Amino acid sequence: MSAQSTPTIGDMMTASVPMVRTLNLEFTEATAERAVVVMPDQGAFHNHVGGPHAGAMFTLAESASGAIVMTAFGDQLSRAVPLAVRAEIGYKKLAMGPVTATAELGRPVADVVAELDAGERPEFPVHVAISREDGAVTGEMTIVWTLRPNG
């Protein structure tokens, strides 16, 4: 990264979230509509059947959701803190090799910001699909986030 380049959401998350570094997560896309994060195949994080451990996949999906939240609501950080409220994950198929998490925001950004403007503490879902290299969806996660007003 040159001295003149602007850090990406992935750069910021890698610098500020130790688990992102631990799992060697790669942020390949991060917009307000979609975030894509890849976890390479790493023996240190395998389960008893040779695929990525459920906890590693949870962290992968949660990290993708965090990337979309930071991209969509980064301009609100001076007045609110994004926090994960609850999560539900379903493991659908055996995951082997590298896995990719694709996150999508479940509510329009403008609606969430309008609630924040009204003095509320908005909640919004982020839906994440976890897939293996052949494209098969191996897991699905929904994480409900909030923007907690400062003060």
From TrEMBL:
Gene3D superfamilies: Hotdog Thioesterase. It holds the Pfam family DUF4442. InterPro entries: DUF4442, HotDog_dom_sf. This is DUF4442 domain-containing protein. It comes from Streptomyces albiaxialis.
